[in-house]
C-alpha cells in the first residue's frame, strides 16, 4: 500500500535526520513524496533537512509545496522564513515571521523530538555548492567505487542526495542512459533535482579536459531532460541563478539541438 510504504520512507528519513545524516534523510523523504505526493508532511520534513545543509532555495520550494497543500501549516511558513533569510530575501522573511510565531521544534521534522542542545545555523553562503575546480578536485569516499545502476526513481533520488560532490553526481548520472531519462522521471521530475543535474553538468564542463564523447554525453543529457514530462513547467520553478547555470552549460557546449527548449536562443 503506497501510504504504508511512504510512511516507512518517512520513518527512515527521520532516523537519518536524527543521526545527522541529512543527505540520506532527504533521499528517503524524496522517496516518500514520490509515493504520496499529496501528503504535506514529507516535503515539510525535507525542507528541514535542506535547511540543515544550507540549501535555502530547495527548502523554500518545499515550503511552497507544503503551503499549496496545507495553507495553514505554520511550520511551513516559519521554515520558509528561515529559507528566505538564507536567500537574503529579508523583507519577505520579516513578513513570514510577522505572520507566524515560531512553533515548537520548528526546525525538526515531524515526529522527531527537538534536540537538547542547539546547533549554530550553517552559513548559507559557505554551504552552497563549491566552484567546479574545488568540487572536482575533492576526494570522495565513494570515488571510484562501482555503484549499482539506479533502476528506479526511488533508487536514483536516494543515491543523488547522498552524493556530496559534483564528481560523485556525475559518476551516478553516467549510469543513467540519456534516452532513458523520460522513463526514469516520468512526471515526477522536481525543480531541485533538475537544477542539481544542470549544476553538475556545468561543473563537469568547467573542469575541462573532457573527452569529445563525454561532452556529447553532457549534450545528450540536456536534450534528454527536455523530453521528460512536465519539463516546461518544472523549468519555471528554477531560480534566476539556476537558469543562469543553464545558459552556462549551453554556452560551454556552444549551443546545439535542445537549447531552445530550455529558453536559450
TrEMBL record:
Question: Where is it found, in Gene Ontology cellular component terms?
Answer: protein folding chaperone complex
Compositional bias (Low complexity) at which positions?
A: 99-109
Indicate the transmembrane segments per the record: none
Q: Where is the composition biased (Polar residues)?
A: 126-143
Q: Which UniProt keywords apply?
A: Repeat, TPR repeat
Q: Where is the RNA-polymerase II-associated protein 3-like C-terminal domain?
A: 150-243
For the keyword Repeat, the answer is yes
Q: Which SMART domains match?
A: TPR
Location of the region described as Disordered in the Swiss-Prot/TrEMBL record = 89-144
The UniProt entry's sequence similarity note says:
Belongs to the RPAP3 family.
Q: What is this protein called?
A: RNA polymerase II-associated protein 3
Amino acid at each position: 500500500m503506497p501510504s504504508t510504504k511512504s510512511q516507512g520512507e518517512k520513518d527512515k528519513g527521520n532516523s537519518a535526520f536524527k543521526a545527522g545524516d541529512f543527505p540520506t534523510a532527504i533521499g528517503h523523504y524524496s522517496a516518500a513524496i514520490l509515493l504520496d505526493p499529496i501528503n504535506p508532511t514529507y516535503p515539510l520534513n525535507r525542507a528541514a533537512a535542506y535547511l540543515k545543509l544550507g540549501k535555502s532555495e530547495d527548502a523554500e520550494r518545499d515550503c511552497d509545496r507544503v503551503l499549496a497543500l496545507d495553507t495553514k501549516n505554520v511550520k511551513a511558513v516559519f521554515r520558509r522564513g528561515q529559507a528566505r533569510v538564507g536567500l537574503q530575501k529579508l523583507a519577505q522573511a520579516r513578513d513570514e515571521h510577522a505572520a507566524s510565531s515560531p512553533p515548537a521544534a520548528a526546525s525538526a521534522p515531524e515526529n522527531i523530538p527537538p534536540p537538547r542542545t542547539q546547533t549554530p545555523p550553517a552559513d548559507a553562503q559557505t554551504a552552497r555548492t563549491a566552484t567546479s575546480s574545488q568540487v572536482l578536485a575533492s576526494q570522495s569516499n565513494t570515488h571510484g567505487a562501482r555503484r549499482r545502476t539506479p533502476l528506479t526513481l526511488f533508487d536514483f533520488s536516494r543515491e543523488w542526495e547522498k552524493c556530496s560532490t559534483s564528481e560523485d553526481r556525475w559518476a551516478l548520472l553516467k549510469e543513467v542512459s540519456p534516452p532513458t531519462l523520460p522513463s526514469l522521471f516520468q512526471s515526477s521530475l522536481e525543480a531541485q533535482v533538475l537544477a542539481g543535474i544542470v549544476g553538475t553538468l556545468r561543473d563537469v564542463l568547467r573542469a575541462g579536459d573532457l573527452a569529445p564523447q563525454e561532452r556529447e554525453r553532457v549534450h545528450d543529457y540536456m536534450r534528454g531532460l527536455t523530453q521528460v514530462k512536465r519539463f516546461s513547467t518544472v523549468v519555471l520553478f528554477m531560480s534566476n541563478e539556476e537558469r543562469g547555470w543553464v545558459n552556462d552549460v549551453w554556452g560551454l557546449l556552444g549551443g546545439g539541438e535542445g537549447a531552445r527548449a530550455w529558453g536559450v536562443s
